[in-house]
Amino acid sequence: MHNDTTEPLFTPAEVGRAGQDVALQIEAAIIEGRILPGQCLPSERDLHMQFRTSRGVIREALRALTQKGLLEIRKGSRGGAYVKQIDVAQVSESLALFLKQHPFAPASLIEFRESIDRSITTLAIARATPREREALVAQADRLAAELRANRPDLDAVGEIDRQLNLMLAHMARNPIFEWVMAALQAGFSSHDYRLYESPEYREATAANWCDTARAIAANEPMQALACISRHYLLLGRCVHENAVPPAPDHARPGIGQPVS
């Protein structure tokens, strides 16, 4: 919890826009690490004295930051405004809700995913260990084997696909890309499930994943990137031929984002 004897964290709020200024100063303190996740803000009385504004303005700013997901208000003897730890699950949920409220054209989603996947793949080829490359090939072979079954288990296919994407993002050795991929896998669909549902495209998609994994393992960036382009070409064609609303998230857990 914040120590009330330390130097004040905040300066008097700007007259005329006090509520906004209070919220911005508190947000800056959180982002800059002057107040850490799990710590409590100074008491309402101390905030009132530091900002030199009314308690109503303080409460308004705290409500705004709570709605933004930066704070949580706790009751009881140890109550107060505590800084929240923002994690991937929270961001993923917000992203999924945003996409449901603002549906994008499939072509836009496909274009976005391809640009991300090309960057991750290029980095993975440069940075992955030999063991990681072997594991990626083995996982791609698992996907192909599952899809060769007479009745593929699409839930199992979706989980294998999800692991492939997360493995590849980890191989890139860039924590931001890894975080973004985890968020996308949790709450985002770029219509790839249609490739797995379609017998016409299923075999070609699985073979292309295997080709991509082997190109990465062999340090062949041009071949790997060509495979990614082929995947999204197949996806665009499949979506165009089967122009129906995307399946709800709960109906197709894990299916949605093969990189290649």
What is this structure, in a nutshell?
The protein is mainly alpha-helical and 260 residues long. Helix content is 63%, strand content 3%.
Helix content: 55-70%
* Count of helical stretches: 11
The residue-averaged pLDDT reads 87
Q: What share of the residues does DSSP label as strand, in percent? A: under 5%
Q: How many β-strand runs?
A: 2
Shape: elongated
Instruction: Give the biggest beta sheet.
Output: 2 strands, antiparallel
- C-alpha-based Rg, rounded: 24 Å
Uncertain runs are: 249-260
N-to-C SSE series?
HHHEEHHHHHHHH
Largest sheet, order of strands side by side? 1-2
Q: Report the end-to-end length measured between terminal Cα atoms.
A: 47 Å
User: Which structural class is indicated by helix and strand composition?
Assistant: mainly alpha
Features of the shown structure:
260 residues, mainly alpha, two-stranded antiparallel ribbon, 11 helices, 3% strand, disordered C terminus
Q: How would you describe the overall organization of this protein?
A:
The chain is mostly helical. Helices cover 63% and strands 3% of the residues. The chain contains eleven helices and two strands, in the order αααββαααααααα. A two-stranded antiparallel sheet has the order 1-2. The protein is elongated. Residues 249-260 have low confidence and may be disordered.
SSE layout:
Blueprint: H1 18-31, H2 44-51, H3 55-67, E1 71-74, E2 80-83, H4 88-101, H5 106-127, H6 130-147, H7 154-171, H8 175-187, H9 193-197, H10 199-217, H11 221-241
Antiparallel strand pairs: 1-2
Helix pairs in contact: 1-3, 4-8, 5-7, 5-11, 6-7, 6-10, 7-8, 10-11
